[in-house]
Amino acid sequence: MPIKIPDSLPATAILESENIFVMTEYRAMHQDIRPLNVLILNLMPTKIVTETQILRKLSNTPVQIEVELLRTASYQSQHTDEDHLASFYTTFDQIKEKNFDGMIITGAPVENLEFDQVEYWPELCEIMAWSRTHVHSTLHICWGAQAGLYFHHGIEKRSLPQKLFGVYEHRVLKPNSPLFRGFDDVFYAPHSRYTEVWEEDVRKAPGLELVAVSADAGVYAVKTEDSRQFFVMGHPEYDPDTLAKEYWRDVDKGLDIAVPANYFPGDAPTKVPVVRWRSAGQLLYTNWLNYYVYQTTPYDLKDL
Prior knowledge:
By secondary structure, the protein is of the alpha/beta class.
C-alpha cells in the first residue's frame, strides 16, 4: 500500500522511479480509511538521503501512511538546504499537541560525544518523554537507539576499541516474535558506529527484551515488554552504496578507516558491494509497522 507524502518532496520522484506506489494528497483525501500517522525525527546531517531510505522501507506496508518529518529546533542543520527544511519539516512546538500511531528516531553521527554534550540533547529528551504519551510505538535506530535506551532505561553506551563498520551476521533470540516474522535463521545488517550497549546491561534492565544479537556486532534489537519502544542498533534502511560512500569520504579526508567488513567482494573497495541485508531490512520495518502499530493502535488517537 502507498505512503502519502508531499508531491514535491525529493523522495517522491526517486521512489516513483523505483516503481514504489506513492499516493497523491488528492487521492488520499478521497479514500474512506484512516491512514497511519507516522512521525520521523530525522537527526542525520544528510536529511534527504535518510528520509528517502526510510520512506522506501515504509512504502511496502499494508495500509496508507501519512508521514510527517520532524527536525530539532535547537540545532541548525549544516548539510541540508534551509528551503528544504522549511518546506517539508516541522518542529516539536508545532506538533507536540498531536498524537501519532508510530514514530521513528534516526541515528546521528555524534556517538563519540557524551549525551549531554550533544547540542540538541535537552530537546531530544523532551521529545522522547513526550513520545511515551503521544505515540503508540516508537522505533529508535542506531545512535537514536542508544539515546533512547539511556533516557528511558538508564543503559549507558560504551566506547568500542575501534569503529564497528560493515555488514554482519545476526541471529534472532525470539523466533516467535512478530518483529522477525519471515526472517531467516541468520540475517545480515549494516553497522557504522563507535559505541555499543552491553548485553548484560540490557538483560538486567526491567521491562526490556533482547530479541536479536550478533557475535561480531553485539546487541542488535531490543524492545519493551509492552512493545511501545523498539531499539535497533544497526541501519537496516541503508542503501547499497551507503557504506562505500562513507568509506571513500573518510579516505579522501586522510582518515585511518578500515574497509567495511563483509561488504566489498574480496574486501576490494573498487568492486561493487554485495547487498545482503535488503530483504531483512524491509521485513523489520514492515513487521514493526504492521504488527506493533497498525494491528494495535487505537482508531481514535485521542485514546492513546
